[in-house]
Design brief:
This protein has about 190 residues and is mostly helical. It contains 5 helices and no strands. The structure holds fe (ii) ion (FE2) (2 copies).
Length: about 190
């Protein structure tokens, strides 16, 4: 698979977890519980898969674009860099809110719900900019030699962090699937 397609495919994995954040927020807003392991696996996913894996790959792409003369102070790079900071803030916020939820024995506060909602809204928009602006631009700007260099960087990142990242993604999607089953069973019980 080509390096740019790899980044695009990773976005599909992140989108699924972002959408699960929205469902968790909805469940909590209705006053129902979300198992702590689901929330912890979401935080772990954003750290392992988002920060340490996908983000590193994206950094490799951004530095190659910079080498090719794409200005860092102009659109879309400036927006994407700004949003990456915002993403980090939201993930840190989620991590603290989940710790509070755990320590309180499941008492839900607004910060947890608001942060889950913010993440569910943030990712589709951010990923759209990358899929439709950043990656198509990279496809045009990078020569075959640069694309090979990107592929080498991605392979290196994958060899160092890929296994852990995929395990975090798998664990997270298993926890989410389990949670969805519980939620839909309780909805059926409520409507009966
Ligand atoms: Fe991305
Ligand atoms: Fe990004």
């Amino acid at each position: 698979m080509k390096a740019i397609e790899t980044l695009e495919r990773e976005h599909r994995v992140i989108e699924q977890v972002a959408s699960a954040c929205g469902v968790c927020a909805e469940v909590l807003r209705r006053g129902a519980q979300v198992p702590i392991d689901v929330l912890e696996s979401i935080v772990d996913f954003f750290h392992q898969y988002g920060d340490r894996y996908h983000r590193q790959a994206e950094d490799a792409l951004l530095s190659l674009l910079h080498e090719r003369g794409v200005p860092t102070g102009a659109c879309p790079i400036v927006v994407i860099n700004y949003e990456n900071q915002k993403r980090k803030t939201l993930v840190d916020q989620l991590s603290s809110a989940v710790s509070v939820y755990l320590k309180s024995g499941g008492v839900v506060d607004e910060t947890l719900i608001n942060t889950l909602e913010a993440l569910a809204q943030f990712f589709p928009d951010h990923i759209w900019k990358e899929d439709y602006l950043l990656l198509p631009m990279a496809e045009k700007v990078l020569s075959e030699e640069y694309k090979r260099s990107l592929a080498d960087s991605l392979n290196l990142i994958d060899s160092m962090k890929g296994t852990e990242a995929r395990q975090a993604a798998e664990k997270c999607s298993t926890a989410i699937r389990h949670c969805m089953k519980v939620v839909s069973r309780s909805e059926v019980a409520h409507s009966a």
